[in-house]
Amino acid sequence: MGNESENTTDRQQSIYSATLLDHFRNPRNYGGLPSPDIAYEEFNPLCGDRIRIELKISDKRIAAARFVGDGCAISIAAASLLTESVLGSDIDQGEVISGEELVSSLKSDIKPSRMKCALLPLEAFRSCVKIYKRERPSR
Ligand code: FES
Questions:
Q1: Which of 12, 52, 70, 116 to mutate to test the pocket of ligand 1 (most atoms within 8 A of CB)?
Q2: What is the count of structural domains for the chain?
Q3: How confident is the model at residue 96 (pLDDT cuts 50, 70, 90)?
Q4: Which residue from 13, 64, 99, 131 has the least number of CB within 10 angstroms?
Q5: Which atom of ligand 1 is nearest to the CA of 114?
Q6: Position 2 pLDDT exceeds 70
């Protein structure tokens, strides 16, 4: 998984917070769902990395949120934090977590050039919400 080695360099240790490194090394909710209700894969055209968000919806609540993908430490950690934060929320609320909140949850100095990495999972999640609202599954 990912195009950054699990053995992060000294440089990464200094620019990435303990939170970011923990979620990169031990991503929460990694792995696909057996039969997701909604799924969407977003990719970063700058590097080709991909993050796919999969959701299970029950009574309009996000009953399961998982991800698969190939990405850098920032995108994997952001996907891990995102899936944790949206779990249990009402999908009709739409924006469960803002881009600002997600980036700040990484507790790292994310440079503008890496902002796309941090927001990649959120873009996939937003597309999932759009699909849900368009299709309005009767469950
Ligand atoms: Fe590709 Fe970060 S370098 S998503």
A1: 116
A2: 1
A3: confident
A4: 13
A5: 2
A6: no
